[in-house]
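Before the break, one more example. Copy the sequence into your notebook; we will annotate it together after we see the structure.
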Amino acid sequence: MGAAEWIGPSDGEKDKLDINAIASSLPPEASELKATLANSIVKGVDDMRRAASTEATQAKATQRRLAIAVVAGSAIAALASGLLLYGQGGADAPASSSLVSLAKQNSVVIALLQIVSLLIATAAAGYLAGKDFGKLWTERRREAETRRIEIFNNALALIGESPGTGDESPLRQVLEFFRRYQLDLQINYYKKAGQREDKSSNRALFATSLLGGATVVLGLIGGISPALLSLSAFLGIAVPIVLSATQSWATTTGAAAKAASYQSAGKALQNLRFDLTKIEDAADAGNVADVKKFMDTVHGIMSAENGAFVGAGPLPAPPPTPRPARQR
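Here is what the structure looks like once it is written out:
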């Protein structure tokens, strides 16, 4: 057995960069790698990485919740405003229509819904303005990824003066550690994250396309039956509001841009992996320079993706409040 068998193949999405767990899973023969992972430099950097990653996760969750509150709250308030206008008979709709009647009968409830929704949206926007969780998410995520790279650079530096030779050498052990928990782990991460963001982008695109198509046929609805005239008029207000909210959310999450970035980085790493056999031979020969060059190339791709990462886009503008149509 050699270092490749000691470290083992990638376990797909189950693999995580958990230094303690990895060290515990290694056989006694991988003593050099065990000692490297127990080194205070590696463990200290890993502690900083995990702290930054935790902060990034918390900032991401908070930012998304607040952004949802801004987008949804603003849209609901605008829709409620439109219903109140109908209840006042300010729109071009028969006063006896069921929609107008419903709005009049529930005007107090609708007004309360408008006030609460606007309050939630305003409070969330104010909180986001006071503390930019999107920026915090971006900064902590970049710090965590930078520390991740430092772990492997430090591991290589620690055995660089005595790399040894052969497939059980300290250098080969570090390379196999890098192969499974950096190269393969990141390829799997970019693939999964790219698919997730692509699905999110496609859902938003489908929703905006559907709503865009709905606006085209709204003018035809009123001509089908006089009873549908009020519904057509209200949808003429409601659909643009929902469309604006959907587009605002797509801009805020930046799913399409993230998907493209993840997919590009993943393909670049997959192409680099074709050279792995050559690098394994270099490690067996004790060639630290070639191993370092390969690791630096992988880290360069990761750093480029990390540098382009933006945790959240700008705050979406709330949809416009409907105005009553002219009285005729």
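The mean pLDDT is 83. DSSP finds twelve helices and no strands in the chain. Try to locate both features in your own notes.
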